[in-house]
Amino acid sequence: xxxxxxxxxxxxxxxxxxxxxxxxxxxxxxxxxxxxxxxxxxxxxxxxxxxxxxxxxxxxxxxxxxxxxxxxxxxxxxxxxxxxxxxxxxxxxxxxxxxxxxxxxxxxxxxxxxxxxxxxxxxxxxxxxxxxxxxxxxxxxxxxxxxxxxxxxxxxxxxxxxxxxxxxxxxxxxxxxxxxxxxxxxxxxxxxxxxxxxxxxxxxxxxxxxx
Length: 211
Fold this sequence. Notes:
The protein is an alpha/beta fold. It contains six helices and ten strands; from the N terminus they run E-H-E-H-E-H-E-H-E-E-E-H-E-E-E-H.
């Protein structure tokens, strides 16, 4: 825990880069198993993926419309404790994953018209939401959305703030006072290139957030 917010750094795909970040106050590392993503790690040799996930931090395996058996096989093989569902998965999948002891983060798009109404059906099928930018495709976009929409979310399930968060956003995030905000998801805004994180930028951002 960093202050009152969990820090999740997603899109890790290089073991040496992940080790560079190990001593930072990061709570969760995310690894993406969605082939179209430029941060896809599922093609890595087993020994490389084993090193990538050899961390004392909580580990999140990110999927888009994958099936239960695929998710279960990967989480078992590499010791993932969390699963992030970032597609059009049914609530039944979230419930099934929770039943085998995994923590479930369900990504929900911030819709300018309907807000977070789509989160309602997942209330009992997830442990956390991740509110991200609405896009025509699947997966994250790296773009921001209007955080004023958070006023429309009155659910009790805690959520991660996601979507284009970058170094200059620490003060604005620190000023957010939504009672269900539990963490932030950091990815493309802190990279040298897709999947390779900028340690200095992450460290400075987290320190600013804690002030």
